[in-house]
Amino acid sequence: MGFRFRKSIDILGLFRINFSKSGISFSYGVPGYRVTKMANGQTRKTVSIPGTGVSHVTTSGKSKKAKAAEAKKVAKSTAKKG
Predict the structure, then answer these.
(1) Residue 28 in this model has a pLDDT that exceeds 90
(2) Which residues contact 68 (CB under 8 A, 6 or more apart)?
(3) Of 6, 5, 28, which is closest to residue 18 (Cα–Cα)?
(4) pLDDT, tens digit, for every residue of 54-63?
(5) Cα separation of 64 and 80, whole Å?
(6) Residues 6 or more apart from 49 whose CB is under 8 A from it?
(7) 31: helix, coil or strand?
């Protein structure tokens, strides 16, 4: 089993800077709703019922890996045409 590292710094209770092995992410929100811009470039929205442990998370956007793979694929197809 691998080890995880994460450190968060709260700013005024509304903003949070998260440091992890994969990079730095930023989040903002209030109890019950939070938006996070993750280190991999994706955006995560979390809606929860505070104090219950019940939440719903949606993730949008492509990760940096996916964007790089797509760019590589486009460059490869462009090179074949030329």
Answers:
(1) yes
(2) none
(3) 6
(4) 999 999 987 6
(5) 24
(6) 32, 55
(7) coil
Helices (H) and strands (E) in the chain, counts: 1, 6
- Name the β-bridge partners of 78: none
The proportion of the chain whose per-residue pLDDT surpasses 70, expressed as a percent, equals: 94
Structure pTM?
0.65
Element (H, E) at 64: helix 64-81
Tokens of 62: 């492509």
The whole-angstrom separation of Cα 42 and Cα 62 is 6
Other CB atoms within a 10 A radius of the CB of residue 48 amount to 16
Above 90 in pLDDT, residue 78? no
Domain boundaries, the chain: 6-81
